[in-house]
Description:
This protein is mainly α. It has helices at residues 2-8, 12-17, 23-45, 49-62, 66-78, 82-95, 100-112, 116-129, 134-143.
Amino acid sequence: VISYFKKKGVPLEDAMATGGGSEEDEEDDLAEDACCYNQGKIWLEQGKINEALESFRKSLELRNHFKTLAQISVCYDRLGLAGPTFEYLELAYKANPRNDKVAYDFAEKLKASNRTAEARKVLESLLLRNQSYKKARILLRSLDSIPPTAQHEKR
């Protein structure tokens, strides 16, 4: 309940004075979030990237969730915008580093940015919990073929 009021910008004192937010309000937000997210998925499948991006942004305003962040990253990637693609994928990974798909995608982007040591850490962590993730094993092996002089770390 407190997080609901914080999200709405209502001071805690005011929330306590009114007896808190209703569960119906929170349920309404979750339903609206799901609606926006699902509409974004539909737009994305139809190739309507800008519409999808707008739906995902609305969803994110209602609820900060790693899947929404990952979908926003996909939208930016399809629009050819590397910076926001990486930024939102990194946010998705930080929000849920245990999601195998997000971790793998993030490792791919790290490799593409010559941040191979970071990519290796992400992939090794992924493979510790899911040894059967073949694409992750292949990507990790591909990092071994990169000469150390071609690797650099963002500081």
